[in-house]
User: Fold this.
Amino acid sequence: MKLHDLSPHRASRRLGKRVGRGIAAGQGKTAGRGTKGAGSRSGSGGKLYREGGNLPFVRKLPFKRGFRSINRIEYLEVNLDDINERFNDGDVVDPTTLAENGFMKSPDDLPIVILGRGEVGKGITVKAHRFSRSAITKIEAAGGTVEVINTGVSE
Assistant:
């Protein structure tokens, strides 16, 4: 049996009702549209989103305010207190080790920014795409080093 041999079970797919095929078919003559009036004519049904004089639903919704640039760069934000919990003295913190420790699924997911919330009591080497000033000062004060990974992405 091949893919082109497959077909749905005979009773699982019901065919649409064929209207306007004569009196004997049961839906002949007016084909279920009644007689006269706008509903019996072709092209009836009104415009999409028209609600018969009510205020259209789309106009009831509030405006979506603000602006989100299509050229933005989204970073994975990692704080110093998260690093301090999961890493030991002398460790190298880079995208690969962050992925291994559950910060992200893959080291290639997002560029990483290290933010300065919390304290670092260990001398660790941190490699990331961006650092806040406070993060740099706290890492270096604890005896660690900071290395910026260049991705070629301009800010």
